[in-house]
Amino acid sequence: MAKITAFEVGYCTHIGCMALKGAGLRVCKFPSRAWLLEVGDRRWLWDTGYASWFEHYTRRGVFQIYRQVTPVCFDPNESLARQLYARGMVGGDIDAIILSHFHADHVAGLRDFPQVACICSGEGWAQVRSLRGFAALRHAFVPGLFPEDFESSLRFIESFDALTLPAALAPFTHGYVLPDSNGQVILVPLPGHAAGHIGAFVLTDDGWTLLAADAAWSPTSYRELRGPSRLAHLVMSDPPAWYRTLEQLNRLWQNGVVDIRLCHEGDL
User: Where residue 165 sits, what CATH number does that domain have?
Assistant: First the structure.
């Protein structure tokens, strides 16, 4: 079965009520997580978290606003690349990086993995790839974080084999099988938060896990169907779709079969 290893790669801070309605004005820490997925001798990264490149490409221009709105704490010694190296792995040991979406806190480490292919939603990439200036900022998309050759080896999930999901994963019904994962990693659209936002069902020895990325910012959100502040809708690509996804997570959680993991689950 697949193995999942979690890494915390920096964090940002924000007042709690922005992420969860009613959480108050306490400043909360929101870790940025990445995961290593392993099936046999195959290895994939799920997102990259923060990296020094984030500071570099948000130092000036409109993207300064990004770092001011969500202050970031990042230690270069804790970059994903360095954490993997401490475990004896380098970029060449990774088959591909799967991007849950294109927000800077999920892709900032791409330049630390040159020559590693990426996988993402083709529909989502088409929506953001040409954005610049304030339009890019509106989507938390920082073009400089993407290497110049990013598209040269890019693969889209829509090109993968589609399948009907097992009943245990209801209400989710369809997904895309990650090639070479023996059916143990299935990529699924989780629309609403951002263009091309996806999750991954991963079959481990303990059963199914859903890496739900930013489909919620706190487990309380999907357990109680409690959304964020309405101001947070400004950074969502499609708020009504986000709430539909949240309802799906709620039903999945009530089934009690799947372990749901969020990227930014912290002290909220």
Answer: 3.60.15.10
